[in-house]
Amino acid sequence: MVGHYWLRNPKLAPNSFLRLQIENNIEAISAFADDVVGGKIKPPSSPEGRFTQILSVGIGGSALGPQFVAEALAPDNPPLKIRFIDNTDPAGIDHQIAQLGSELASTLVIVVSKSGGTPETRNGLLEVQKAFREAGLNFSKQGVAITQENSLLDNTARIEGWLARFPMFDWVGGRTSEMSAVGLLAAALQGIDIKEMLTGASLMDEATRTPVVKNNPAALLALCWYWASDGVGSKDMVVLPYKDSLLLFSRYLQQLVMESLGKEFDLDGNRVNQGLSVYGNKGSTDQHAYIQQLREGVHNFFATFIEVLRDRPPGHDWELEPGVTCGDYLFGMLQGTRSALYANGRESITVTVQEVTPRSVGALIALYERAVGIYASLVNINAYHQPGTDSSLYLLLWLLF
Ligand SMILES: O=P(O)(O)OC[C@H]1O[C@](O)(CO)[C@@H](O)[C@@H]1O
């Protein structure tokens, strides 16, 4: 059962039990976040008397969405600042803990794992618990678990009496879980309007249900991918947001697109080795690094420009020279690069966003989720499993033990 789109429109859930579960969960997340931000729920031994930091422990679909959204939408001075442990690299873990310093006492640790048994996440949790012990802090009063009911993580959190537990549903895949507790809790704690994110996603879902292809942005996107890559993934997707706050979009899309579409067999059991490779960065900064090859080098890609029309809030524009702002340069760089690629026969798609807001970010996420689903239908594969990653994890465990 696949139902991530019910998360933003619970009325679409197949029965009232699921609908209520989704609605109650959103309410529980909002209430918990309000209580933490408002200081009603506080850490037991912090001088600040309230939580000031979030340490999110998770990997893949349990990290990339929250990372992208934090970078895109967190205000300059969020009520709680977020940092991530998303690897089993001891130096990386030590760095995050060291950066927290004495604020470990006012850190809310959110451990996110759908399966509840991913090795990197488990290791991150054990390392953080050790740091708490060494600092004389009680981890369970500051720990929150987001996972499937009765997973190893869920049982640990329940038995150890952690501060809170929020469910992940088995009908939501990790890579499409940003609108579940995985993304919503971290966002709400940073002061991001999660209802607006859900509204944006739900409006995009609606807009992409029309069977009239030319009016359906997700269908158009999927058809562009199909055309550009000959329906066999012959070209890579280069994602170039011209907006600093959308820097992590390509990283987020890497998992959504590659884990969903990179499949050995089609639905009829034919070996097809499908997929679309995704990479990217941000414009205009990185065009100083890659434009030479994109324009003149091997033609093994198609580009996606993400264009954002509003740069500063109205009334805050400042002209560098008469009639020209910094943002005009950014826009000019995008247009110039796109024209240069076009002149050399290199294909590009442009996705235009009015402004980076919770609503537009929700809509962007839904747009790509829907495009992935449509593309998978076009090439006759299952977008919602990951036999390749699952078997490489088994191999890792076999090598270790
Ligand atoms: O949320 P979990 O179960 O810890 O999994 C993390 C990630 O690992 C994967 O299973 C791939 O290894 C992804 O599909 C998933 O997003």
UniProtKB/TrEMBL annotation:
GO terms for MF: carbohydrate derivative binding; glucose-6-phosphate isomerase activity; monosaccharide binding
Transmembrane spans: none
Reactions listed under catalytic activity: alpha-D-glucose 6-phosphate = beta-D-fructose 6-phosphate
Record-linked Gene3D superfamilies: Glucose-6-phosphate isomerase like protein, domain 1 (3.40.50.10490)
Pathway linked to the protein: Carbohydrate degradation; glycolysis; D-glyceraldehyde 3-phosphate and glycerone phosphate from D-glucose: step 2/4
Keywords attached to this entry: Gluconeogenesis, Glycolysis, Isomerase
EC number: 5.3.1.9
PROSITE patterns per the UniProt record, alphabetical: P_GLUCOSE_ISOMERASE_3 (PS51463)
Biological process, per Gene Ontology: gluconeogenesis; glucose 6-phosphate metabolic process; glycolytic process
InterPro entries reported in the protein's UniProt record: G6P_Isomerase, SIS_dom_sf, SIS_PGI_1, SIS_PGI_2
Cellular component terms (Gene Ontology): cytosol
Protein family according to the UniProt entry: Belongs to the GPI family.
Listed PANTHER family: GLUCOSE-6-PHOSPHATE ISOMERASE
Name by which UniProt lists this protein: Glucose-6-phosphate isomerase
Organism encoding this protein: Artemisia annua
